[in-house]
Amino acid sequence: MRSEALARLDGVTKVYRTPVAEVRALREVSAEFPRGALTAVVGPSGSGKSSLLRLLAGMDRPTGGHVWVNGVSVGSSSERGLRRLRRHTVGYVFQRPSDNFISYLTVGEHLRLAAGRTDPARGHRILERLGIAHRADHHPAELSGGEQQRAAFAQALVAGARLIVADEPTAELDGSSGAAVLEGIRELVGEGVTFVLATHDPAVRRAADDVLVLDHGRVVHPSPARPAAGSPPIAASAGKGADPLGSVVVEASGVTKSFRRGAETVHALRGVTLRLDEGEVVGLIGRSGSGKTTLLGILAGWEQPDAGAVRWPRGMDPGPLPRWSHVAILPQRLGLIEELTVQENVDYPARLAGAPPGSTDRVGELLERLGLDALADRYPPETSVGEQQRTALARALVLGPRLLLADEPTGHQDSGWAARVLEALRAAAAYGTTCLVATHNEEALPFTDRVLRIRDGVITETAPPGYSRP
Questions:
Q1: What share of the chain is helix, strand, coil (3-state, %, to 5)?
Q2: Which residues sit opposite 281 in a β-bridge?
Q3: pLDDT tens digits, 249-276
Q4: How far from 56 is each of 23, 27, 132, 199, 204, CA to CA, in Å?
Q5: What's the CATH code, domain 248-462?
Q6: How far apart are CA 273 and CA 458, in angstroms?
Q7: What phi and psi, each to the nearest 5 degrees, are found at residue 206?
Q8: Is residue 90 within 8 Å of 60, Cβ to Cβ?
Q9: pTM of the entire predicted model
């Protein structure tokens, strides 16, 4: 028998007004979230998922309609009442893992503060359940993106909240890490905790007791997972761009990198050797904490290896400040300029380079390809994180760089937009851009020419049939 609802939305509308636009994030949404159940909120980027979570967490008020959480009206409560709701009833996990932490506190210190006077050992048990108990004495910046997300989840859980809302909690986790998180969630659901997760992850949807589907701010009837309208099919063929056996863009040999974390030495890369050729799309596949981001940082010139060498063609060595036309980076922390519109962010590298002829046409082409043309005059905070990620990708591609280093480029996309992103990388490769795509998303593999697998800082290579080195 289904438990009574812990939270309920009745005819909820949410409108955000800016100097240039009115964004209707939610339109007459009604839904119930049962106690002791996992509800997945799904839909394309920009469909209103994050806005719904913020209302449930008492971080926003509805423009119209009613939101009830554990008997408390979010719309009519005082600010003090909403703070009490957030402190004692609702735990919130932000979409960007780093937003959940105070940088100078360790993971364990975060959990002790969140736990207050409750069982002090609870935090350690939750960390063990999520597979990161060994990170308790580390600071957030010392964790990988996936480890940060799991630590943020632990922080929300340890305070004993009855409702946990989380925005894309598995987006930056590899499959096995995501499965561990979901296993922990199911155990907690069995103990009576209610979870509402906004997600693009099919595994979360399969694990859910209920699924709420949003599209353009409205509730729609659940349907099989499908790409967004106008999206290309997922099963796109690779190798249609430039010849992957062209000139060498970058080579690394014997690259080693370690970091000190207190008394511990973390070996992020161990003797990495690779070669990237012009116009190929190469997948760098590995679980969270395997060394993917560290390798991209070294190739970008942001980090220096402890040993080994990185060799570039003459005139292309990026140094610590690479030219956008030589090496472009799509980082997990997107780095958009909030004072610039979506279009101005995409155009920014061209402006830095003196706005070469034809750059404006390229901006328009990328905005259209990545579904951003209707958002061109909005500012990044007025768009979803998935749309922000596509904006950062368009910015990285606008000058047609020799090398693109993309860190989890589909991490905040649903299946349809993930395909659009990967198609954009293949289109860039057709014009000669080499793309190194760090990801834990195995669905990206059909879009690559070959795959580098990394585990504990060690790389092995797999390649499609018929592919051979010159």
A1: 30, 25, 40
A2: 435
A3: 899 999 999 887 666 788 889 889 999 9
A4: 19, 16, 28, 16, 19
A5: 3.40.50.300
A6: 9
A7: -65, -35
A8: no
A9: 0.64
